[in-house]
């Protein structure tokens, strides 16, 4: 029998790699909803190819274009945040949550509320909503499968083990494209998005360069795996062959290895708890030759320190960190601020002494997110 899937963020890097796997096993899948922000051409093309029930653009200005692009196909066209959440709430066997940023939070929560399986790539949603999201998962009997390569690696290494037997988990970090660059103030967007190992969207690529990606992943891991923060470590591993490690109390450390290709963790989620074929070549260890490991440099790249502090503070701090980072990354990509100002801006917002209280509902998380965006924008564009 076919399994049904909705892909939120279908036109992005994770979304397209998910569709690639669906295409290779087309007879096994029924596509329900596909969504994008504004990329109508790619969304309509995919919706027609996969005979989706509905295609949604978040940006309402593109509804007319989407209707035109889908004319005669019988595929429903819709636009706006409410439509995105309505599409995400349609019951499916699995939802791929691959929107970038906190913009994906509402749709992810809508998918959780239908109680199915959510393959979560959208780490910003979990970082911002934290306990609000994990409580909703428990309440609605949903299953959250980690797509992020490190968390997927840890999830795989935990299969058959007991979390109570885990001494620590270690997230590997490539260190990004700027690890060896001396003057971080002069870095261009082109340099920052040129990730050495992974082909990803612009926002996460900048996050890898600042190490905010690893900071967000630290908070993500804290919510996905019930371990104290001091049991979650980060090690720089420039080859990105080992995707993360779990150390058990008997001294055994399990690691998951694989090519730097997101289709591996995506396939692991799509087939879970079984396995499926992917077009990956076997790992060629002699060709890889060497694997190296370094401690993170938190003086040059303060993001992991800031994330750890925000996670320790709890409350609104992780959502504030995420929102300020989203504003800073967008400003950097727009060439409005220097690369080295990203972390400074995030720290400035986090250090404001009148931050909102801990959010307890989705609406409160969204208010904290908006408030932090305003604070960050005010620092960038003082009136
Ligand atoms: N790329 C990767 O390898 C990995 C990504 N992740 C995480 O997965 C998520 C997606 O990353 P990635 O695929 O690289 O991102 P991309 O930028 O490539 O794609 C983002 C997707 O989200 C859509 N989108 C953007 N803004 C909005 C919005 N405001 N409302 C609704 N939809 C929106 C885009 O639509 P449109 O095309 O119309 O703009 C696109 O479909 C991120 O959270 C990232 O951190 C995690 C691990 C690895
Ligand atoms: C593929 C993936 O999961 C990314 O999050 C990747 O890990 C980014 O690489 P960094 O280790 O450089 O942040
Ligand atoms: Mn990752």
From TrEMBL:
Enzyme class: oxidoreductase
Chain's role: Catalyzes the NADPH-dependent rearrangement and reduction of 1-deoxy-D-xylulose-5-phosphate (DXP) to 2-C-methyl-D-erythritol 4-phosphate (MEP).
Occurrences of domain 1-deoxy-D-xylulose 5-phosphate reductoisomerase N-terminal (ranges): 5-130
Recorded metabolic or biological pathway in which this protein acts: Isoprenoid biosynthesis; isopentenyl diphosphate biosynthesis via DXP pathway; isopentenyl diphosphate from 1-deoxy-D-xylulose 5-phosphate: step 1/6
Residue ranges of every copy of the 1-deoxy-D-xylulose 5-phosphate reductoisomerase C-terminal domain listed in the record: 144-225
Protein origin, superkingdom: Bacteria
Keywords, alphabetical: Isomerase, Isoprene biosynthesis, Magnesium, Manganese, Metal-binding, NADP, Oxidoreductase
Reactions mediated catalytically: 2-C-methyl-D-erythritol 4-phosphate + NADP(+) = 1-deoxy-D-xylulose 5-phosphate + NADPH + H(+)
Protein name, as recorded: 1-deoxy-D-xylulose 5-phosphate reductoisomerase
HAMAP family named in the record: DXP_reductoisom
Binding residues annotated for NADPH, in chain numbering: 11-14, 39, 122, 124, 201
Cofactors demanded by this protein: Mg(2+); Mn(2+)
Binding site for 1-deoxy-D-xylulose 5-phosphate: 123, 149-150, 174, 195, 208, 213-214, 217
């Amino acid at each position: 029998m076919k399994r049904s899937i909705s892909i939120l963020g279908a036109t992005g890097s994770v979304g397209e790699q998910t569709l690639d796997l669906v295409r290779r096993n087309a007879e096994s899948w029924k596509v329900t909803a596909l969504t994008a922000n504004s990329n109508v051409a790619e969304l309509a093309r995919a919706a027609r190819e996969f005979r989706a029930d509905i295609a949604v653009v978040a940006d309402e200005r593109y509804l007319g274009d989407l209707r035109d692009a889908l004319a005669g196909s019988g595929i429903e066209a819709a636009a706006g945040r409410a439509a995105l959440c309505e599409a995400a709430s349609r019951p499916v066997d699995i939802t791929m949550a691959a929107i970038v940023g906190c913009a994906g939070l509402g749709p992810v929560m809508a998918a959780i509320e239908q109680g199915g399986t959510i393959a979560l790539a959208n780490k910003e949603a979990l970082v911002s909503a934290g306990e609000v999201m994990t409580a909703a998962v428990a309440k609605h009997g949903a299953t959250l499968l980690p797509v992020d390569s490190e968390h997927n690696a840890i999830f795989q290494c935990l299969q058959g083990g007991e979390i109570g037997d885990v001494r620590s988990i270690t997230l590997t970090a490539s260190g990004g494209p700027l690890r060896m660059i001396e003057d971080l103030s002069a870095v261009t967007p082109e340099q920052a998005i040129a990730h050495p190992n992974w082909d990803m969207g612009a926002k996460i690529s900048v996050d890898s360069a600042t190490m905010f990606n690893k900071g967000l992943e630290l908070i993500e891991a804290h919510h996905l795996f019930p371990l104290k923060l001091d049991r979650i470590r980060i090690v720089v591993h420039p080859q990105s062959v080992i995707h993360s490690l779990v150390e058990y109390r008997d001294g055994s450390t399990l690691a998951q290895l694989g090519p730097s290709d997101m289709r591996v963790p995506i396939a692991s989620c799509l087939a879970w708890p079984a396995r499926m074929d992917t077009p990956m070549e076997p790992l060629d260890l002699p060709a890889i030759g060497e694997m190296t490991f370094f401690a993170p440099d938190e003086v040059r790249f303060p993001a992991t320190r800031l994330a750890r502090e925000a996670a320790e503070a709890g409350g609104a701090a992780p959502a504030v960190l995420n929102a300020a980072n989203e504003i800073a990354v967008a400003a950097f990509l727009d060439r409005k601020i220097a690369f080295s100002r990203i972390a400074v801006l995030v720290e400035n917002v986090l250090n404001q002494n009148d931050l909102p209280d801990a959010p307890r509902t989705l609406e409160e998380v969204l208010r904290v997110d908006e408030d932090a965006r305003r604070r960050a924008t005010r620092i960038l564009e003082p009136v």
